[in-house]
Amino acid sequence: MSKATAAFRDAELTRAFDQVSEAEPMSVENWSYLMPPANMAMKRQLRRQIRPFVENALRKGPLGLAADFRQMKRKNDLSLMNEFVAQEPNGKNRYSDVGCLDHNRVVLSTGPCSYIHANYVSTPNNPKRFICTQGPLPTTCSEFWHMIVQDEVEVIIMLCDFVEQGTDKCYAYYPTKKGKPLTFPGNISVSCKGRDKFIFPFETKIKIKITSLEVSIEGQSPLSVSHYQWMDWPDKGVPEADLAPLYLLHQFRSIRTPIVVHCSAGIGRTGSMVLLENAMEVLEKGETLYEMDRYLTALRTQRSKSVQTEQQYLYVHQVILNLLRAAGWLPRSLEPYLEMFLQQYLRLIK
User: Fold this and answer.
1) What are the start-end ranges of the H helices in 19-81?
2) Which of 70, 117, 210, 311 has the fewest other C-beta atoms within 10 Å?
């Protein structure tokens, strides 16, 4: 982009946010999570709320945002991961280069071992909104289910398949057929009570399976858990950037116990979903949505190396822009720049 074109774009961005017109509402989708602005005062308020994020995204574009991502620290600080290091010889870590921070790790009070590769992660509305964890191994299924019962988890979101491109990504830790429970050491039994498809109120290619589970551990009351498996999110890649992840997350907004989210390592696809929820809760609270790098930096202090690839980081931006567009929060005059962002995004994720 030439300097003259960039200067024109910057002036157009400033004009779009400073000049609020009654005659420019965009069509609102059937479901957008956010309410469309009802009047001029609300429109001005919403523009102020989203301006830092939108201006940063459209000024830098996907190429600039990808460059920002490459500059962000993604190394393990093993001095903050003593238990992860200690457990490495015991087969409790799926990947030796994906650490687990000590300060907020889930410590199990029951079961064969107090360690599990899992961290509590906060969002604006809840200091323990998520537990981000690795996909269970054959040697960690007991710990996984002890964690579920200990934290009274109601929802598990699985963002991977058991095998992807011929590589094991997650052990089959839950049953998918009625009448065929799985048992694990420590008198743990997990039963399937039913399976169904997750239904979206809009067209999407995303496929999610819901499994109703009952977890029984000797000496404790049975726990009902809803398991959501996103069937087709590619490893280190991204799905179509529609509103599917936001609609899925929206279903769990009233849940107060931690939501367990995992993929294989529990940082890439998992981190992307958590970053999206952070943005949604910021918007929900009426707070200013800033540049996404500050939220990712904060997330990585809770779940090390969260968001693995440039594509995933850009995906988060594209989904949020699509949401703001669908809700009618963005000026119509930004349409050419939103389209330019989208086309560059599509080229970069290939």
Assistant:
1) 40-71
2) 70
Give residue limits of the domains in the chain. Answer: 78-308
CATH number for the domain formed by residue range(s) 78-308? 3.90.190.10
Residue 113 known to be catalytic = no
Inform me whether the pLDDT recorded for 83 exceeds 80.
Answer: yes
Distance CA 272, CA 313 (A): 7
Our CA angle for 136, 139, 144, nearest 5°, is: 45
Please, which residues have CB within 8 angstroms of residue 6's CB and are 6 or more apart in sequence?
A: 59
Residue 167 makes CB contacts below 8 A (sequence gap 6+) with none
Q: Give the 3-state secondary structure of 206-227.
A: CCEEEEEEEEEECCCCCEEEEE
Q: Kind of pairing, strands 126-133 and 259-262?
A: parallel
pLDDT digits (tens, 9 = 90+) for 188-247: 999 999 999 999 999 999 999 999 999 999 989 999 999 999 999 988 889 999 999 999
**How does pLDDT run across 293-322, given as a tens digit for each residue?**
999 999 999 999 999 999 999 999 999 999
Mean pLDDT, rounded, of the chain: 93
**From residue 273, how far is each of 42, 174, 307 by CA, in Å?**
28, 22, 9
